[in-house]
Amino acid sequence: MSFKEFIFEYKYLTIPFISWWAAQILKFIIEMAVNRKLDFTRLTGSGGMPSSHASFTVSLATLIAINMGLGSVEFALAFAFSMIVMYDAAGVRRASGKQARILNKLLYHRKGEIHLDEELKELLGHTPFEVIGGAALGITISLLFYL
């Protein structure tokens, strides 16, 4: 089986993973361009532009829409799954990141007795723009594999 045959044989996994990796690589490149530093954690970390979670789930929903139709049960499930993931990324995880930022300021930037082993992770969620960017990337990559 060739590489191309492998990708299309297992397209419901391989293409969303390609979309996820594309988002992670874009995060790394954007970090380099904006902040002028190499931050290899952007290749695997959450948060930032574009959302790799949105890219993955929307890519999967797009593939299902192409292959099974917009009226299929599979598309409805994938669409609902994507919406939940994107809502969580822009809502709950973003709020958790904001709370972590405040707690880090309270715990590490004031003299006190409370200290954790390490600072809490602040870059957890996404802005709505980052989620839309990830969704657009997922749709684009899925469509490119079918052109």
What does this protein structure show overall?
The structure is a single chain. The protein has six helices and no strands. The chain has about 150 residues and is an all-alpha fold. The protein has one domain (about 5-145). It is globular.
Give a brief rundown of this model:
By secondary structure, the chain is mainly α.
**Residues in β-strands, percent:** under 5%
Supply the number of structural domains.
1
Mean pLDDT: 84
Total count of helical runs of at least 4 residues = 6
Low-confidence stretches: none
Helical residues, percent: 55-70%
Structural class: mainly alpha
Question: Could you say which overall geometry the principal axes of the C-alpha atoms support?
Answer: globular
SSE ordering: HHHHHH
N-to-C terminal Cα separation, in Å? 21 Å
The major sheet is characterized as:
none
**How many strands in all?**
0
